[in-house]
Amino acid sequence: MQPFVFASPTDQVVCTHCRRHLGDEKAERRDREHVALWRSIVEARDAAAADARTAADEAATEAAATIASLTAEREQLRAGAIDGSGETGAALRRDLEGELVRRAERATELTNRRLDRAMVALWQVQAFHHPDARKPGACSCGKPLPACPESRILEGVRQEMRDWETRNLALLRDGKRHGLPPEHPEVAGAGAGARGGAGGGPAQAAAVRRPGVGGR
Question: What pTM does this model have?
Answer without folding.
Answer: 0.42
